[in-house]
Design a protein that fits this description.
With about 350 residues, the chain is α/β, with parallel strands linked by helices. It is elongated, with a radius of gyration of 21 Å. The strands form four sheets. Strands 1, 2, 3, 6, 7, 8, 11, 12, 13 and 16 form a ten-stranded mixed sheet that branches. Strands 4-5 form a two-stranded antiparallel sheet. Strands 9-10 form a two-stranded antiparallel ribbon. The protein has helices spanning about 10-15, 30-45, 95-110, 130-140, 145-155, 200-205, 210-220, 225-230, 245-265; strands at about 25-30, 50, 75-85, 110, 115-120, 120, 160-175, 180, 185, 195, 270-280, 290-300, 300-305, 315-320, 325-330, 340-345. Helices cover about 30% and strands about 30% of the residues.
Length: about 350
C-alpha cells in the first residue's frame, strides 16, 4: 500500500520556482531561451529528487542481471516524461528541433533501453494543439504503467511524477532592403519568399470554411482575434508589420492554457506539470531565434500561468538593438515583460487510488 503523499517538499519547490525571474516577448538565441528559461526552471522544480527517466532504472524486477540497473525507489524520486508540439511545416524542423532536443529533451524525456529519446511529439499545422485534452491525456497515460506507479508511490511518500510539455509555434522573418518582414521567409538563398507559418497565414488571409486546419486555427485564436488579425495590421513603433508573429504567439499561449486545464483531469495528487509556450522565428540561412511567451505549473490544487496576453489588439512591439542586429521585443499593453502577472486557478485534486 502506498504511503500518504507528503506534498510539502514539492510545494516548496513550486513556490521557489515562482520566485524565479523570466523574460518574455523578446527574440533571443534558442540556446538562451532553452537553457535560461525552460531547463533552469524545470530543474528548480525537481532538484533534490532522484531523477528517473531511463528505462533501465525500472528494471529492478527483471529476471536477468539487468535488475542491477534498477533504481532504489525508497529514495525521494521523480519520474519525468516530456511532450512537445511543433508545426509540421518542414521549415520548422531541422536546426530548430535539433536545438530543442539537444538542450531540453535530452534532460527530461524518457530514455529507452538502447539510449534513444522517447518523446511525445505532436506536429499539428500551426504548431498549437489539435486538442489540448488529447495531448494531456496521451502524455500522462504513457508515463507510467500501474505496477511501476505503485512501486514509485510505495517507495517514498515524497516521490512524484513530472509532466513536461513545451508548445512551439513559428513565424518567418526576412530582412530585405533594410526592412524587416514577419510572416515570410526563404528555405534557402535560392528560394523565393513564402509564408511561414503557412497554416496561420492561410487561415488569416485566405480562410476556407471547409479547411479543417483553418477552422481549428480560427478556434485557437478566438473569433474576436480572428476578425481583428484578418482585417488589421499590428505595427511596431517604426512601422514593421508583426501581425503574423502575434497570431503565432496567441496560438501557442492558447495551447498552454487549454492543456494546463486538461491536465487537471489527468494527473493525480502526485503529478506535477510544467508547461511552456514559445514561437520560433525562422530566418533564411541563419540560426532560428525563439520568443518565450508563457510558463505554467499544475500541482496540488492550483494552476498558475504567467504569459503575455491573448487579446491581439493589445499587442505592439519595437525593434531594439541586440547582439548586433535588430530584434523584436513584443509589448502587451503596459505590462512589464520581465515581471508579468501570474494567474492562479484552483481545482480539486484527484486521488491516485493506489
Amino acid at each position: 500500500m502506498s504511503l500518504p503523499f507528503d506534498a510539502a517538499p514539492t510545494e516548496a519547490r513550486v513556490e521557489k520556482f515562482w520566485q524565479l525571474s523570466a523574460s518574455f516577448g523578446m527574440e533571443r538565441n534558442a540556446y538562451h531561451n532553452y537553457l535560461n528559461e525552460i531547463v533552469s526552471d524545470r530543474y528548480a522544480l525537481i532538484n533534490g529528487f532522484q531523477l528517473l527517466r531511463d528505462e533501465l532504472q525500472f528494471a529492478a524486477s527483471s529476471p536477468t542481471d539487468m535488475k542491477a540497473c534498477g533504481a532504489d525507489m525508497s529514495l525521494p524520486s521523480v519520474v519525468t516524461t516530456l511532450a512537445y508540439t511543433n508545426c509540421g511545416d518542414r521549415i520548422h524542423q531541422g536546426e530548430a528541433t535539433k536545438r530543442y532536443r539537444d538542450v531540453v529533451a535530452s534532460r527530461f524525456a524518457t530514455l529507452s533501453e538502447i539510449g534513444e529519446l522517447k518523446l511525445e511529439a505532436f506536429f499539428p499545422a500551426g504548431g498549437g494543439t489539435d486538442n489540448g485534452a488529447t495531448l494531456a491525456h496521451v502524455t500522462v497515460a504513457h508515463e507510467l504503467d500501474e505496477p511501476l506507479k505503485r512501486r514509485l508511490y510505495e517507495g517514498n511518500p515524497q516521490s512524484i511524477s513530472l509532466v513536461a510539455i513545451d508548445m512551439k509555434t513559428h513565424v518567418g522573418r526576412l530582412r530585405e532592403n533594410g526592412k524587416q518582414i514577419y510572416g515570410k521567409t526563404r528555405e534557402s538563398p535560392w528560394r523565393e519568399p513564402r509564408a511561414a507559418c503557412g497554416a496561420i497565414a492561410g487561415a488569416l488571409t485566405h480562410y476556407h470554411p471547409n479547411n479543417l486546419i483553418h477552422r481549428r486555427i480560427r478556434s485557437d485564436l478566438g473569433e474576436r482575434n480572428f476578425q481583428f488579425l484578418s482585417s488589421n495590421a499590428i505595427l511596431t513603433s517604426d512601422g514593421v508589420n508583426i501581425t503574423m508573429a502575434v497570431a503565432a504567439n496567441i496560438v501557442a499561449i492558447r495551447g498552454i492554457r487549454n492543456t494546463a486545464m486538461a491536465l487537471v483531469q489527468e494527473m493525480d495528487e502526485r503529478g506535477l506539470a510544467h508547461l511552456t509556450a514559445s514561437t520560433t522565428v525562422n530566418r533564411p540561412s541563419r540560426d532560428d531565434l525563439v520568443i518565450y511567451l508563457a510558463r505554467a505549473t499544475v500541482f496540488n490544487g492550483k494552476v498558475r500561468i504567467q504569459s503575455l496576453g491573448t487579446e491581439a489588439k493589445r499587442y505592439s512591439g519595437q525593434l531594439v538593438e541586440y547582439a548586433g542586429e535588430k530584434r523584436l521585443q513584443l509589448q502587451y499593453d503596459d505590462w512589464d515583460c520581465d515581471n508579468l502577472p501570474i494567474e492562479e486557478i484552483l481545482y480539486r485534486v484527484r486521488s491516485s487510488g493506489l
